[in-house]
Design brief:
The chain is mainly alpha-helical. The chain has a single domain, classed as Chorismate Mutase Domain, subunit A, CATH 1.20.59.10. Helix content is 74%, strand content 0%. The protein is built from three helices and no strands. The longest helix is centred in the first third of the chain and has 32 residues.
């Protein structure tokens, strides 16, 4: 059975809130799966292992998140910390794939 997800402002019960959170978490996992797919593509495209870590790009990604969060009224510093961890995890994942492809 496919339940319709109720948007946050329309929720009237905690069951609706929890269903929305669970559906959102599944959607986030789908997006993370795609994001990590881009890390696999980067590992395939980058010719030198030293290209995997790009501190300038990392700073750009985190600055973009902070700006976007601020524009949405979300906690920008907390989200920047989450994205810092996400980017570091992505870099480690990309290193693993880069090494695996060239072993």
């Amino acid at each position: 059975m496919n339940k319709q997800i109720i948007l946050p402002d329309d929720c009237r019960t905690m069951a609706e809130v929890r269903a929305g959170v669970d559906a959102t978490d599944r959607a986030l996992m789908d997006l993370l799966d795609r994001r990590f797919g881009y890390m696999r593509a980067a590992a395939r495209i980058k010719q030198a292992r030293g290209e995997v870590r790009d501190e300038v790009r990392k700073a750009e990604v985190i600055a973009n998140v902070k700006r976007d969060a601020a524009g949405r009224g979300l906690p920008e510093d907390a989200l920047a910390e989450i994205w810092d961890r996400l980017v570091e995890c992505s870099i480690a994942y990309e290193f693993g794939h880069w090494d695996e492809m060239r072993a």
